[in-house]
Design goal:
It is built from 28 helices and 22 strands. By secondary structure, it is of the alpha/beta class. It has an 8-stranded parallel β-sheet with strand order 13-14-16-18-19-20-21-22. Strands 2-1-3-4-5 form a 5-stranded parallel β-sheet, sandwiched between helices. The longest helix is centred in the N-terminal third of the chain and has 18 residues. It is elongated, with a radius of gyration of 32 Å.
């Protein structure tokens, strides 16, 4: 184990002039005193490193006879990534070892000291056998040698203060070597998943799952992790991944299986992610689910794989990713996280592990980390903290959200919040999550509802452009743990999205025409059929892939929705997948009109009319996307639309006339790709100072571009 008073300290990143990890010749450099350990501990450690496929330098094995030792050793040090220093009793007797240590200590790389039958304090203080060694070195030392001795002392002190492994704390050297190998393998593995710092309660989960995974067994095993939403299944699986991934030839973590597998294209992408994660062949084409299954069975059956499938909700999702054990090579482990324990039984996993709520001690610690940024409550908040922890009932997500919402608040504000909780019993998780929502102001609440109903998984930059006030509100929502940003994409827990949508419904539970957001095709159909839409409706996102009945748009049905800001009609499974095949019909009569003055976002795939309505205003329009539409020209009347930044008219095969760019002076992105009937590009486009992206590809009838386009500075 690591030294009792320290932890493994990660090395600082090397300066720009240092080697990148791809340039290292050796992964590990062994420094040791030959007469102490060469034919014992060092030899066993070296052989174990080699057996794990770790490229290791050992001077008596690597240097050619007759070579210039000093220069070759210097080169080996420079070309090594990790240094294992075996500090034995007589290490300091060797000037060679000490010179080597000085060179190593000057590099900004990972050093793992092994205190072999010596006390770490002997190195730091140069006592014991190290004191005697330096006494001998200093005999009759001249000025030059005294300077070298001081460098030796400094190097020993520096290494002695690093975290490492104390051999005296191990009963068996085999266990010590195993722990060293595990640390090195983890450091060499560059694919560790990002997890929170200072996690609470993970050690017990990890210990239990290790016993179920049985990593020493060479058979293929499936392990299920199940539990309530928000209980921490994903976090637990990530910690397990980071703990054991270095033991496998290939390790793949596939997130959000439930959401990503709703449609055919998504399932195909999941298969490609799995196959490419193992085979790592460029441009491998998988054209069907069945083909993907065949490739998985044929190409992965001989490979030792760690596969984690996160958030599986249906057995069908496993059928095309991990149907049978013999799809994977000996020693493979498939770990499945799900809310549904029955799914695991149906798939006959070897072991099933339930992630349960935290006990009181861990709950109070987790809550305090978010409420006070430390492990225990402040004096005046002890009782209030206990009440809050009791209310959260061990649910990690609730503890985080509650703690964050109360951070920096006064005692009176805490008491008020607690009294509010007591008036609304803890019926389910939704009640807990709503607390953070109620702490938002009116504008923040509206942005939150827009995101939960429409923009989960959206790029933050797109959401900021399309949602009014999003730029200032998104950081607030992140701080309150209502949303997270992953590679600049907006994400949130399922339960948070559910409570957001429930809030939108609860305004008028039986009157969807009065909801601010409409996203369910059944609710949208009801509102349009009964003409019950009102000015309260701010956004409509209609996914025609999910519509069960034919939809009909009429001017009358939309006439009262004068507050409409966000309007999207789309096919989540892909518009082109439905062309020429069976699909739910959308009827739009000629002369159809809809309110457009407040509209910021209009996205209508397959818009069926020749142009936008005659009364279309669009003064506040920021983005217009009419791809795959039947338009011949965009507007029936030109007017200044200064707020419009994005114009997408790709694959509009009947478009013959490009709108006048001078009326859209702030355009940043224009996409008119594959508009086969378009013959001419508006010359004003060359005067758009903010334009950074222009796509005119596959517009085959455009014979020449305006000269003004040469002045554009596109990214």
């Amino acid at each position: 184990m690591a030294s009792a008073n320290t932890q493994i300290i990660p090395y600082s990143p090397p300066p720009p002039s240092s080697r990148s990890s791809e340039q290292f010749t050796y992964e590990v450099f062994l420094s040791f005193r030959g007469e102490d350990t060469r034919y014992g501990f060092t030899d066993h450690l070296y052989e174990t490193l080699i057996s794990h496929g770790i490229v290791t330098f050992r001077d008596d094995n690597e240097l050619e006879r007759g070579g210039v030792i000093a220069s070759e050793l210097q080169k080996a040090i420079e070309e090594s990534k990790i240094f294992v220093i075996i500090l034995s009793e007589n290490y300091a007797n060797s000037r060679w070892c000490l010179d080597e240590l000085v060179e190593i200590s000057q590099l900004q790389r990972l050093i793992l000291p092994i205190f072999y039958h010596v006390d770490p304090s002997d190195l730091r203080k140069q006592t014991g056998s190290y004191e005697k060694a330096f006494f001998d070195h200093e005999k009759e030392a001249d000025e030059e040698k005294r300077e070298k001795i001081q460098k030796w002392r400094s190097a020993l002190t520096k290494v002695g203060n690093l975290a490492g492994f104390d051999q005296q704390k191990y009963r068996h050297e085999a266990r010590l070597i195993k722990d060293i190998i595990n640390v090195i393998c983890k450091k060499l593995n560059s694919k560790l998943l990002d997890v929170e710092e200072n996690m609470v309660g993970m050690d017990s989960h990890l210990e239990e799952l290790r016993s179920l995974i049985k990593i020493e067994s060479n058979d293929v095993r499936m392990i299920g992790i199940h539990g309530l939403g928000g209980i921490g299944k994903t976090t637990v699986s990530k910690v397990v991944y980071n703990d054991i991934c270095h033991l496998f030839k290939s390790s793949i973590f596939i997130a959000d299986v439930r959401e990503r597998s709703q449609y055919y294209e998504g399932r195909l992408k999941l298969q490609k992610e799995l196959i490419n994660g193992v085979i790592k062949e460029k441009n491998m084409e998988i054209n069907s689910i069945q083909e993907g299954v065949s490739v998985i069975k044929q190409r992965l059956c001989s490979k030792k794989v760690l596969l984690i499938l996160d958030d599986v909700s249906k057995s069908e999702q496993l059928e095309f990713l991990a149907r049978k054990l013999d799809w994977f090579g000996p020693g493979s482990r498939i770990i499945i996280t799900t809310r549904d324990q029955r799914l695991l039984r149906e798939h006959e996993v070897h072991e099933s592990y339930e992630v349960k709520g935290l006990g009181y001690n861990k709950s109070i610690q987790l809550f305090c980390q978010y409420a006070f940024k430390k492990k225990s409550p402040e004096e005046d908040y002890v009782d209030l903290s206990n009440d809050m922890v009791d209310y959260a009932n061990g649910l990690p997500l609730a503890l985080k959200v509650l703690g964050s919402s109360l951070h920096g608040r006064s005692v009176r504000q805490w008491e008020s919040a607690l009294q509010k909780l007591k008036t609304r019993p803890h019926v389910d998780v939704h009640k807990v999550l709503k607390i953070s929502y109620e702490g938002l102001d009116d504008i923040e609440q509206q942005v939150f509802l827009d995101i939960t109903c429409f923009f989960r998984g959206c790029d933050k930059n797109d959401a900021t452009r399309l949602i009014e006030h999003a730029e200032s509100c998104i950081p607030v929502l992140c701080e309150k743990n209502l949303i997270t940003l992953y590679c600049n994409y907006i994400e949130m827990h399922d339960l948070i999205q559910e409570i957001g949508r429930e809030i939108a419904r609860q305004e008028h539970p039986k009157e969807p025409g009065k909801w601010s957001e409409l996203w369910d095709p059944a609710d949208i159909s009801l509102v349009l059929r009964n003409n019950t839409g009102t000015e309260d409706v701010k956004g409509i996102f209609l996914d025609m892939s999910r519509a069960r009945v034919a939809m009909e748009f009429t001017t009358e049905a939309f006439s009262k929705m004068k507050g409409l800001r966000l309007f999207k009609v789309y096919w989540s499974s892909g518009f082109t997948n439905h062309m020429g095949g069976e699909r739910t019909e959308l009827h739009v009569p000629k002369g159809f009109e809809f309110p457009s003055y407040d509209l910021r976002y209009l996205h209508w795939e397959g818009y069926p009319l020749e142009s936008l309505p005659s009364n279309f205003d669009g003064e506040n329009l920021v983005e217009l996307n009419l791809k795959h539409s039947s338009i011949k020209y965009l507007w029936q009347r030109e007017k200044l639309r200064e707020k419009l930044k994005v114009l997408k008219l790709s694959t509009c095969h009947q478009l013959t006339y490009m709108p006048c760019s001078s009326n859209m002076p702030n355009l940043e992105e224009v996409n008119i790709e594959s508009c086969g009937s378009l013959r001419k590009v508006d010359s004003w486009i060359g005067f758009l100072n903010n334009l950074t992206s222009l796509d005119l590809s596959l517009c085959q009838k455009i014979e020449k571009l305006p000269r003004t386009i040469q002045g554009l500075s596109l990214k």
